[in-house]
Amino acid sequence: MPLYEFHCDDCDRDFEDLVPYGTETLPCPSCGGGRVRRRVSVCGFSVGGKMTTTASSASCTGCSATSCSGCGTATRR
């Protein structure tokens, strides 16, 4: 099962949970609220010592590319 990130609008908390693929929402583990939405996750991985990131429709600060693969730069963490 994939790990997804969620945000609860009732208590304004973020949390992660292992849920079946395609799960869009679930009750908040902190407050039990139902106004929970899945967040877009950013994935980071290392290939040959160079840090690479992926994100759907996001770009780096100050970068005009629509994805990190567009400019070829990444931030090392």
Characterize the main sheet: 3 strands, antiparallel
Question: In what order do the strands lie side by side in the largest sheet?
Answer: 2-1-3
Number of helices: 1
Low-confidence stretches: none
- The proportion of residues in beta strands is 25-35%
How many structural domains? 1
Q: How many beta-strand elements?
A: 5
Distance between the termini: 26 Å
CATH architecture classification name:
Single Sheet
CATH class: Mainly Beta
Polypeptide structure, described:
With about 80 residues, the chain is mainly beta. It has a single domain, classed as Rubrerythrin, domain 2 (Single Sheet), CATH 2.20.28. It has one helix at about 70, and strands at about 5-10, 15-20, 35-40, 45, 50-55. A 3-stranded antiparallel beta sheet has the order 2-1-3, with no helix packed on it. Strands 4-5 form a two-stranded antiparallel sheet. A hairpin with a 2-residue loop joins strand 4 (about 45) and strand 5 (about 50-55).
Explain briefly what this protein structure is:
With 77 residues, the chain is mostly beta strands. The chain has a single domain, classed as Rubrerythrin, domain 2 (Single Sheet), CATH 2.20.28.
